[in-house]
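Tutorial sheet, problem 5. The two components below are modelled jointly, 904 residues in total.
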Amino acid sequence: MSRLERATAFVSKPRIRNLWTLIVIVFFLAFVITPTLFVLTYAFTNWDLIQTEVIQDPEMMSQIWTAIANSFEIAAIVTLIDILVGLPMAWILVRKKFRGKELLDTLIDMPLAVPTAALGFSAAIFWGITPADLTNPLGLKIVSSPFLLIILLHIIFSYPYMVRSLSAILEQIDQTFETAGQTLGASKLTAVRTITLPLFRAGLVTGIILCFARSLSETGGTVAALATVANTDFNTAPTLIDSLKSTPALAFTSIVLIILALVLLVVVAIVVKKLHIPFRKVWPRPEKILSRGLAPRLKDATSVLFLVFIVLIPSFFVFTFVFTSSPSTTTDWSQFGQSLVNSFLIAGVVTVIDLAMGIPLALYIAKNRSKWLPETLDILVNVPLIVPTVALGFSLKLFWTGGTPVSGPFAIFLVMLAHIAFTYPLMVRNVTGAVEEIDPTYEETARTLGAKPIQGFKRVLFPMIKASILAGAIMAFTRSLGETGATRAVSTTVLTAPNYIVNLIKLENDYYAAALACIILIIISYALMLALRYITRRRKGVS
Amino acid sequence: MPEVSLSHITMRFGKVVAVDEVDLTIADGEYVTILGPSGCGKTTLIRVVAGILEPTQGEVRINGKSMRGVPIEERDLGYVFQNIALFPHMTVKANAAYGPTVKDLPMEEREQVAKKYLEMVKLLDKMSMFPSELCGGEQQKASLARALATGAKLLLLDEPLSALDARVRVDLRYELRRIAKSLGLTVVHVTHDQEEAMSVSDRIVVMRAGGIVESGTPEQLYTRPRDVFTANFIGETNLLEGWVKQRLPGKSTIELRDNSLIEVENCDPQVGEAVVVSVRPEFVFPFTDGLLSRIEYLTYMGTYWRVSSRSQSNDMVEFDVPSIEGKLYHPGQEVYLMFNRNAAVVYPRPKEGVTEAVKLE
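Model answer (structure tokens):
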């Protein structure tokens, strides 16, 4: 902590702070936003290449469009299912008091910490019909459609995002509204439908965007799952980008993906805000029946069962695999060790840079609301969250190298830059949110008591947002640790742990080693998540 | 016709006992205020009546019908919340029409009922506005209209005026009572404001630490409170300790701690018993002899001056003098004080001590 404090004291000096703010804004524009969206310029500079190599190649075009259509269909279906099962779960978490609630709360976050490459393998051996050399007696082997398999996989890691965003908004909706509705004669269900749900819109937009973007950009898990069921012809947009070799085709797919993602999410935001949830029509009798007795209990039970059987068991099914199959002898574990070192090195450097560059920007945005520059930055900061990471990775590589293959330390450096691009917003979002929640009168009070601005920040604001900074850091760290798509888009030779797992499954068919690697990665990530929960719990205790 | 009866209501939250064995009956058409300091359990009690909380023990009956297991929406009551809780996504009219709407009444009837009650609270001209466009007082009127529009004859008011500005609060008090009486409602009104309780109620129930201290008309509780806690909580009073020296019908003598003697008309405790005498400042007068007291400070109250003095036994004694006589007194001055004989109330000295007995928690 003291090191953080010292760092903060340093960056709080007025002159350094102004200079730093300027550097940070330039950094953000030059290293995050421009590389993320750079691929869009390719359409202008190399349109003839795209024309000849992609648009005039009907086979290529149909492959690209099919993959993009798959991605959007999957994302839409996954988001819809998440909303339907997420709402009752959010209610259980926010409005109910029961023993074991803490446990349920922890269980929901568990898939968040696991790298998706591990989830993809785990879910595939649980649901999928696996090839003969992958012996797995406990797997269900019931899902033959890769489309369905990917939906089931994407639900696992997007579900926590939806539940979290819905719970966050539900916590802010005063329960008195619902109670008031009931005192006016509405049954529980009627009150929820006519009063609480219409107040839900903001949370729904956040939840939809998070889920949709996560599903749209997911690469590692999807590649791992498809490789596990020995699929050869089914592609989502990220897996297609992962397998394409020609730069114009990659650029074209990335451009379409980015534009569609941005457009669609703007549309979603507008549609949900305009969406009219009917509150004038009521069905007193059926809604009354559904409000009491068996129906609500059935709903709660279904929510919990969904969590257990669709989210949790497939996530951790990989553990059974190690016990039921025999170890291979050919695995090169030193490679896995190296990949872990790489992953931690990258995640560590990325987190430190996020901290140094993210906090000043967050402070600048949060404290200068209503000016055009911070407002614009605030909107821009979300862009890398929405752009699929695989397209982001490709775009970034195109920006720095012009698309030539990279390897060695430079490749690792580029991977770090790519990881910074999509983790940076997490840090900025976290800290901005925390600063804005804190009443400015605290700092003003400190000033009236004689503190200089820096002291006011250091002694008053910083202790209050410290937990959010740490939470942002751990989020950035785990996201970097679990990322596959952006890494592979920059270079398939940089061996990160998720990348190693994908290679084991896809290239070497060494499933036992893959499972073991998954388990090790899960345990490490889970330890990190526990740390995160511990810190955020303490934050709640303090406030 | 709604009559509410509570028997042995106990409400525990974990180890905390919020309401302890409360028995209370509210007659049809009665306007009852539950008055008590924060944390006394009054809001918990009204929430139990509404069905928002299920009591740990005891039974609520409305019209003689047990409410055990009956959900809020089937209790047929109106509830007005302290935080107003108008639905922010609906206009004032849609809010008022919510009760009729969830009963699925025909459109015209919803409209008609909503308008009727909005007219009653004089908000008809603002019915197309959203709650956020109204000021606090108007919002609470709208929420009252919304509660009334359910047609309920039992109205529960949970600190309905606490969130409002002082002036609006006073105006709304009269509105509340006027509407309740004109509609013949049974009202349970929870408040911590004794002035509010005095001005609206037929009967006040004083609560403290989860239990009922006593109940009575505002006048009874002001002039002849049965408990020293009530004497201190409702209005302002001087509490002086002493013992009964002589006890005769209609005239008893109490010796105070500084050995001065005062006369009171009614005294229940026996000769020799330790007592507390409660006398309100408006019934204390400067005189040629009596309790010797030194003036510490004067407070201007508009129609009168409140003079705060300290007796030789170090007790604070306050008395009121008319505005024009304010100049006659100044700090440091010594005065003799007399008490109005029939306005003084004598209580046995509480075992836990006077300070403890009148403490608000």
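Marking note: The longest strand of chain B covers residues 16-26. Full credit if you identified this.
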